[in-house]
Predict the 3D structure of the following.
Amino acid sequence: MESIKNKAALVTGAGSGIGRATAELYAQYGAKVVVSDVHEVNGNETVALIKAKGGEAIFIKADVSDAAACEALVAGTVKQYGSIDIAFNNAGIGGEANLIADMSVEGWNKVIAVNLNSVFYCMKYELQEMLKQGKGAIVNMSSILGQVGFATAAGYVAAKHGVVGLTQNAAIEYAAKGIRVNAVGPAFINTPLLDHMDAATKQMLVSLHPAGRLGEAGEVAELVIWLSSDKASFVNGSYYAVDGGYLSK
Ligand code: NAP
């Protein structure tokens, strides 16, 4: 993936799961990677994994539910690498599992803050820099639950649907400025996000996937890399599922 080489790529939530796998793949293709996470130890571990394979990366801590932290994160990226060419706004949480009538207001606000407000905050500052550069590629993390509902996950579902709308709006606002903004929608992926689930719940989730298994973080990373690259030069405002057939049922 030659067009990724030497680009400055920011990944949020890169201390774990899909973010880590994608940060490693960006680095493998020669990008200079800003690994960001709220979790300092895990973020530094991702940097170490990248460096162990000869890649280039630094860690910048940021809680993406905080607008000022997102502004500082983008500024830190530009300070370190001189530009921000690619951004993968990935950080997210599962959030409170409850039916709507039982969901706490705090639980709702938290998942909207981390999974939706964060994407607006990050894009706001990423776009300001990309406009100066006259180019850039952003990939936002949605979910299959950005297309359909899932009982007990209303806040998560609303946030991930919101990410799709935000992505489309950004695309139409900035397409003529050389900036592409797309969203990815994984089905259930084997990451620490699912660690709290017992074996029976995971088996139930497996049964929802025509592929007969959950996805792997690296399978999502491959799609994100392609969308970030010049190979996707006419792809803008799109939502791409990576779901083992989940949404096709
Ligand atoms: P993960 O392994 O838990 O990784 C998410 C990372 O984001 C963690 O390091 C987490 O830190 C960090 N994070 C949490 N809140 C943050 C905040 N406020 N600011 C910055 N970083 C924060 O989960 P994952 O499965 O890779 O999920 C990554 C994204 O994919 C999320 O947006 C998720 O909704 C989405 N997704 C996941 C699946 C799935 O089945 N796994 C499916 C579809 C979409 P902590 O560990 O400290 O929380």
